[in-house]
DNA sequence: GCCGGGGTAAACACCT
DNA sequence: CAGGTGTTTACCCCGG
């Protein structure tokens, strides 16, 4: 009839952009950059329609940076025994060094010129670290500082890096300089001197940012003291009353765990027990080394991942396979590099702060294992069918999607289903579905007419969505049976394929995500023990299901990944945790891997039940 | 080339 | 009447 309108099809739409388009690693990078920009702007749109908590932006940004491992996380990462051992071991070394250098004990004298000198050195240090960081970024080993001036900064990357400007000797020197300083009197000062904490949280992205611990020391650039803001901006959505070293009512200082009733008590404890002395200094160094080693490990694992992907022909054309890790962190490179590496050779998508990455489409999986599938000119659809189950993908990257204007690699149907299933009663009004979309995906905060229409279209089109009349109106529910029926499970229909894929990857089993998806879809074959044992393949094996399991909700509610150990160490290092509304994000115990490797699947309870013991990758 | 799935656009009906 | 909700159709792209 009159439908003749869009002859060119929806493709004409500049924003929507249906299918084609350049997708690939570049897209990811662009996305990352966009994220960075958003972070810098801080006035992230995400908090608008999304109704996200105010902390969202900073935190989410912070999440983008895997480097941001706080001491608590470190503790969580390392098992207590490990940590303890490491601490002891390294402390011994440290002490030796300290002794050798005759690191003076902290004097009781007030902070004075020496402190200032220390601060200056600290600044220099930070600057050097920054430089180093840039190098790392180029190598794809480290994420960009999450944000500009306002953004939270990923902590310790610079400090922790092996080649970081802060070498032990530097530190010692610094500490020497400060030795004369009196133990800080207030938490702020303490924090300032606490390299472990301060450095980690304030990051080094800006010298100004590194404002000296001593609060009232104006910086050259005219910036006023910002010890307080800095703290707020720390990656860990710290609430005003929180402290990076304080969580779950106990001191998170490595090896401490002293219980503290409240923050005040903790501060006292911090000042008395962890004042600026040789012991604390040594511990700080140990922490630095811990971080350093983790980073090294991360680099190795990233490299391995790249090698794996290369082997699997995931991105043959990638010029510098190892310098552009897929993880968000490492890829958070400059937009410039983006253009260079665009595999598809398509014109670069706009990279301005306001320009959506959307055109690239495939960006989403950046961080997750599904990257494999999205790399290169793979259509979204493809990733849909062949990749990560929404559940895990979302769970892993939902922070990313939440803040990056990147189109999620899921079908509307699967997204709608996810939205509905996430609710307790498994039903949503249309408007609530809309809200979920905008809340969960930055992408859906624009072009509302388009995607809302699509949502309605899908609701009506698919039998799996059932409209139920309600008192207030109508709500939509999901008919799981229909949903499963909806698409003939490609995997289900082809066990052979599954096997081939698995064997082809050289893994004996499916990863957790895949398992979860399988379990969810009641695919018998997949529940077979033989299929689910190892897990290394990680996201690579997400096959046949685009459905969204409920893992997302868990992530949302918990604010962090479940403590399950990640089998895939070499997966993407990005730790994309969602900040819990109330609890400290890092207060929850997280396994080293889970924390350090963002791509860990976060199965929900169901998944847990189904899941087999996770084995360490070999 | 056909077919089906998915995305987009739009027309249209109905309701508030 | 305007806007939201639903339904349906048409068309496009893509992969099998």
TrEMBL record:
Q: Where is the protein situated, by its record's location annotation?
A: Nucleus
Give yes or no: UniProt keyword Nucleus: yes
Pfam families recorded for this chain? Answer: Forkhead, FOXP-CC
Record-annotated Fork-head domain positions: 407-480
- Output the Gene Ontology terms for molecular function: DNA-binding transcription repressor activity, RNA polymerase II-specific; RNA polymerase II cis-regulatory region sequence-specific DNA binding; zinc ion binding
> Which keywords accompany this UniProt record?
DNA-binding, Metal-binding, Nucleus, Repressor, Transcription, Transcription regulation, Zinc, Zinc-finger
Q: Which InterPro entries match?
A: FH_FOXP4 (IPR047414), Fork_head_dom (IPR001766), FOXP (IPR050998), FOXP-CC (IPR032354), TF_fork_head_CS_2 (IPR030456), WH-like_DNA-bd_sf (IPR036388), WH_DNA-bd_sf (IPR036390)
Coarsely, its chief localization is nucleus
Determine if Transcription regulation is one of this entry's keywords. Answer: yes
Residue ranges, compositional bias (Gly residues): 15-24
Q: Which residues bind DNA?
A: 407-480
Entry's PROSITE patterns? FORK_HEAD_2, FORK_HEAD_3
Q: Which ranges are annotated Basic and acidic residues under compositional bias? A: 229-240
SUPFAM superfamilies reported in the protein's UniProt record: Winged helix' DNA-binding domain
The UniProt entry's GO CC annotations, sorted and at most eight, read: nucleus
List, as start-end ranges, the regions of compositional bias called Polar residues: 549-571
UniProt-recorded name of the protein:
Forkhead box P4
Q: Which organism is it from?
A: Meleagris gallopavo (Wild turkey)
Q: Which gene encodes it?
A: FOXP4
